[in-house]
């Protein structure tokens, strides 16, 4: 397996409380039959691995940190729905939410080796205000 020199880390708010607080989702992803947009877990799909860890639990939602070992289309959304914890506000793989008018998913960090200087670059972004409001409301 090739090592990815460009790494992305995400934060998401998902529905429910996860039984396993740290986990790896190893489930292949394919295009859903008769859809040009939607994806699904399918044994005929492409290799896909998502690592997650729970940061905080509130009522019936969880704030989680995610790292993708692979980069499939809709990978986080598909994998979280597959384990029964869709992303809050994800109308395609879960349900809409009155807490947020979009998916509660945020790319919080990217890491890569600069092509010229060869230095390790780490760029971080704060959780967006609409996601912070959810966390402060509960």
Please provide a written account of the structure.
- Helix content is 12%, strand content 38%.
- It is mainly β and 138 residues long.
- A six-stranded antiparallel beta sheet has the order 2-5-6-1-7-8, with helices on one face.
- The mean pLDDT is 94.
How many helices?
2
Ends: how far apart?
Answer: 42 Å
User: For this entry, what is the oligomeric state of its chains?
Assistant: single chain
Largest sheet: 6 strands, antiparallel
Task: Give me the side-by-side strand order of the main sheet.
Answer: 2-5-6-1-7-8
β-strand percent reads: 35-45%
* Total beta strand runs: 8
Order of SSEs, N→C? EEEEEEHEEH
Contiguous runs where pLDDT drops below 50 for at least 5 residues: none
Shape estimate: globular
Key descriptive features of the protein:
138 residues, globular, mainly beta
Secondary structure: elements and pairs:
Elements: E1 7-15, E2 22-26, E3 29-31, E4 39-41, E5 49-58, E6 61-68, H1 75-82, E7 105-113, E8 120-124, H2 129-137
Antiparallel strand pairs: 1-6, 1-7, 2-5, 3-4, 5-6, 7-8
């Amino acid at each position: 397996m090739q090592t990815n020199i460009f790494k992305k880390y995400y934060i998401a708010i998902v529905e429910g409380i996860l039984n396993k607080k740290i986990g790896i989702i190893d489930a292949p992803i394919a295009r859903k039959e008769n859809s040009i947009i939607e994806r699904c877990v399918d044994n005929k799909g492409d290799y896909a691995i998502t690592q997650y860890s729970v940061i905080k639990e509130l009522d019936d939602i969880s704030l989680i940190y995610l790292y993708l070992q692979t980069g499939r289309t809709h990978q986080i959304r598909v994998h979280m729905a597959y384990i029964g914890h869709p992303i809050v506000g994800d109308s395609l793989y879960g349900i809409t939410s009155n807490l947020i008018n979009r998916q509660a998913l945020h790319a919080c960090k990217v890491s890569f080796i600069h092509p010229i200087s060869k230095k390790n670059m780490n760029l971080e972004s704060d959780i967006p205000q609409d996601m912070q409001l959810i966390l402060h409301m509960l």
